[in-house]
Amino acid sequence: MANSYSPLSALVKKHTGYEVVAEYRFHPSREWRFDFAIPAQRVAIEMEGGVFNGGRHIRPDGFFRDMEKYNEAAACGWLLIRVVPSELLTLKTLQLIVRACKRTGNL
Q: pTM of the entire structure?
């Protein structure tokens, strides 16, 4: 999917200069996608929905599938930030994303 405007994209671009891609397919052979990614820095942001109402991410099958995806992402060199939807646009999350982008020394 092409870059599209979102408040997260605008904030990250303003504070890091990097583009954010929504629904970014990161794995060479699987159909896995990150909710948001900064490909230039290999930083991914995943929103974990359903935490408070028994959603897929916290049920055993979904939890194990997410673990497989996240472990593969780490093996492929991605740094993953996980948040609940209500935390996505917070200062705390933005600070984490900026710190993650700085880790390579290119920011």
A: 0.85
